[in-house]
TrEMBL record:
It holds the Pfam family GntR. InterPro entries: Tscrpt_reg_HTH_GntR (IPR000524), WH-like_DNA-bd_sf (IPR036388), WH_DNA-bd_sf (IPR036390). Residues 167-189 are annotated as: Disordered. SMART domains: HTH_GNTR. Coiled coil: none annotated. Residues 117-175 form the HTH gntR-type domain. Keywords: DNA-binding, Transcription, Transcription regulation. This is GntR family transcriptional regulator.
Length: 189
């Protein structure tokens, strides 16, 4: 890890810890304290939004990853009216900000993109490491490939959207079974 990446990671950890102190009992003491809590979250998040936007742009080959970044960014930047500024809203905002910072930490270099994770899984399917009918467990694949489980889950969503795998009604993924009436391609085709 480069010095800049290590420093960014340190700052992300520090700001994540700082966020944990914003929505405590002191914030519930008065409307002014709640308002100050919102300002503190906004100030913290504002400096990380450019990095989150770059991560979203870098995820252009993965619709599921882009949707994740869109959701994370929108959760901390949606406009609010004065009537929305409540302690409960502050708790939700702090949680959303923490989730954004954690996602930024998990995607610090060295990081394998979700699109690359999908390519690795697809290669394993094509060479028969995951034969037809195999259930694809994100945690097992993550352990096998030494990757973050959330990246594997997003990759499986992308693979299902492309038709490479099936998503079951229960949310699980599996390699489609081959149709016995359709001849398999000969080797080298």
């Amino acid at each position: 890890m480069t010095g800049d990446a290590a420093e960014t990671l340190r700052m992300l950890r520090s700001d994540t810890m700082r966020l944990g102190k914003i929505d405590g009992a002191k914030a519930a003491a008065s409307p002014a304290a709640v308002s100050n809590g919102y300002d503190s979250v906004d100030q913290c998040v504002r400096k990380w939004l450019p990095l989150a936007t770059r991560r979203r742009k870098a995820a252009e080959r993965s619709p599921a990853d882009q949707a994740r970044w869109d959701r994370l960014i929108e959760a901390v930047t949606r406009p609010r009216r004065p009537s929305d500024v409540t302690y409960e809203g502050l708790v939700v905002l702090v949680s959303s900000a923490r989730e954004l910072l954690c996602a930024l930490r998990r995607t610090q270099p060295p990081f394998v993109s979700v699109a690359e994770v999908a390519e690795r899984i697809d290669r394993r399917i094509k060479v028969g490491l995951y034969p037809p009918g195999t259930n694809l467990s994100p945690s097992s694949i993550a352990a096998d490939l030494e990757l973050p489980p959330d990246s594997v889950t997003l990759a499986l969503i992308d693979l299902a959207d492309s038709g490479a795998i099936e998503r079951r009604p229960n949310g699980r993924a599996r390699v489609p079974k081959t149709d016995p009436t359709v001849p398999l391609p000969a080797a080298g085709e």
